[in-house]
Specification:
heterodimer, A: alpha+beta, Alpha-Beta Plaits, four-stranded antiparallel β-sheet, two-stranded antiparallel sheet, B: mainly alpha, 19 helices, elongated
């Protein structure tokens, strides 16, 4: 079963990491990802740009375009992983490994219903 | 990241909000800063054992406030505190209680006020910047002194003097009205731009030391944008800083010499910063409320979108500079426009455009550099030489001077070649 691991964190804090701190976190996360990739269990991974770059479209009639992210909360959706796991326990294990590499914030683990891996050329 | 690195990041990111709120309570910058320091010391003791609080800023505000109040009591120098703030000394449930209040609109004005205090109009810009970096960003005096290339003692004195002056300024602590809020926003945006420029205008040999100023300016711009998400000019400012900073790695060669835009290795431009900048300028333009930061960001965006110098849309850049001239008439803007004009309509049209600027830019390095370049393109080498000599005399950094000397060398080679051809 595919699980989405959605990464939530305080954006102010992540934005306060120095370049070195940021690189160190990414390096640790890469180790976890590599292990999953070798097992053929790692799907698309995304790190999103800051929520200040986000725009929200409310599907009202007519649709309403708003500046900023959908949810105004302290912890924001900053990225996600798609991982193939047998069950929730396994998905939680992956999230724990990721959490050790990058403490703080939270992961939301959600089973994936439909995944279209798509194709982008850039 | 180690535990302590995580705590450092949390303390840094909570700082503007926490010091801003503490300033509202105590109405005194020194007390607010000291309260924050004390709260940080407690955080360093408590967070590694108890784990991080859900809302670090709220924790620090409550603890900082309580410690300061206890201290006031101990010293029996009871200062009058705002009435709604009865001294609450126990830390239990501190977080829950204050988190609720912070969800309100207060903290936005707290941070804005804190930034606004730093851009007091009587302070010279260098003091405004130093103060903001110290108070809002929490950089140490040593770090700031290093970025400004002055001694720690000199910077300490500069900051102390600036603080004394803002203490007398009596910035109001009431929630500002809409007009006042937008005025504050304009001042604060200008100051953030200055911080960025301070880092951006560094020469090659100091770029590494000063680039933290650019990064800090970007952090503050993002912070401001999070507070005012629908302000197109703040989007424009943030976009402008991101797009300019994206080119940092390509702006100087290994010897610290300036590399002009046309000659830069565009593979060294930072694609992530460009993507963020382009997203922001796109968002800003949707509002159809243009302003100087948006126009400048739009110009930077056209450069960023060009994969090679030849693909640059100079016609559009010329138009944008024309718009900027209307919004913010300045000989420097016209000078920049002239570069676009030279690409679109040739060096003679560009030279005609800058000729009238001479009296106002007679001490401006870039005026003579640009003028020399146009003259050189027109083959008027003797006049170009005079302009370049003047530019060297006015150069602010060794990299600037070296860059002009490169042009002069090219002129000399040209004229030698011509002399050889002419059989002289």
């Amino acid at each position: 079963m595919l699980y989405a691991i959605l990464c939530y964190h305080d954006e102010d804090q992540v934005g306060s990491w120095s370049k070195e701190q940021d690189a160190a976190v990414m390096k640790k996360l890469a180790v976890v990802q590599e292990k999953l990739a070798k097992q053929g269990r790692l799907g698309p991974v995304a790190r999103l740009l800051p929520t200040t770059a986000a725009t929200t479209l409310r599907k009202d009639d007519p649709p309403l375009v708003l500046d900023g992210p959908f949810a105004e909360t302290k912890e924001q959706l900053l990225g996600f992983y798609i991982v193939d796991c047998k069950n929730l326990d396994e998905a939680l294990d992956v999230a724990r490994d990721l959490g050790k590499a990058n403490p703080g914030g939270a992961y939301e683990i959600r089973p994936v219903g439909v995944l279209n891996p798509g194709q982008v050329t850039t | 990241m180690t535990d302590t690195a995580w705590i450092d990041a949390a303390l840094t990111s909570a700082r503007p909000q926490a010091v801003g709120a503490l300033l509202r309570y105590f109405r005194n910058l020194d007390t607010a800063e000291e309260a924050f320091q004390n709260a940080c010391l407690r955080a360093l003791r408590s967070w590694p054992q108890n784990g991080p609080p859900r809302d670090p800023a709220a924790w620090l505000i409550m603890v900082g406030r309580n410690v300061a109040i206890d201290e006031v009591r101990r010293n029996k120098k009871q200062q009058p505190l705002p009435e709604d703030d009865q001294a609450i000394s126990d830390l239990d449930d501190a977080e829950d209680e204050i988190a609720e209040r912070l969800d309100g609109s207060h903290y936005r004005d707290d941070i804005l006020r804190l930034l606004f205090i730093c851009c007091h109009k009587d302070l010279p810009t260098t003091q405004q910047i130093a103060l903001a970096l110290r108070i809002v960003s929490g950089l140490t005096v040593k770090q700031i002194a290093r970025a400004f290339l002055v001694s720690e003692a000199a910077m300490e004195q500069r900051i102390t003097r600036a603080k004394a002056r803002v203490a007398d300024a009596k910035v109001p602590f009431e929630t500002p009205g809409a007009v006042e809020r937008s005025e504050r926003l304009v001042s604060v945006a200008a100051m953030i731009y200055l911080i960025f420029n301070e880092g951006y205008s560094a020469s090659g040999d100091t770029a590494d030391i000063r680039s933290p100023l650019c990064e800090e300016a970007i952090r503050l711009a993002r912070l401001l944008l999070r507070l005012f998400q629908s302000e197109p000019e703040i989007m424009g400012l943030t976009a402008l800083l991101l797009l300019q900073h994206a080119r940092a790695a390509a702006r100087f060669d290994a010897d610290g010499q300036v590399i002009l835009l046309d000659d830069q290795d565009r593979a060294l431009w930072n694609p992530k910063l460009i993507a963020e900048g382009l997203a922001l300028i796109d968002k800003a333009m949707r509002h159809r409320r243009s302003g100087p930061y948006q126009v400048q960001a739009a110009i930077a965006a056209l450069h960023a979108r060009a994969a090679t110098p030849d693909e640059t849309d100079w016609t559009q850049i010329d138009l944008l500079y024309g718009a900027l001239e209307v919004m913010q008439p300045s000989p420097v803007v016209t000078l920049n426009r002239a570069v676009a004009v030279s690409k679109v309509r040739g060096p003679q049209a560009a030279l005609d455009l800058i000729e009238p600027l001479a009296p106002r830019l007679s001490n401006y390095f870039h005026y003579f550099g640009v003028r020399g370049a146009f003259l050189m393109q027109l083959g008027r080498n003797d006049e170009a030489r005079i302009a370049f000599d003047r530019a060297i005399a006015l150069a602010n950094t060794t990299a600037e001077a070296a860059h002009i000397r490169m042009h002069i060398d090219r002129l000399m080679r040209d004229s030698e070649r011509r002399n050889v051809k002419a059989g002289k």
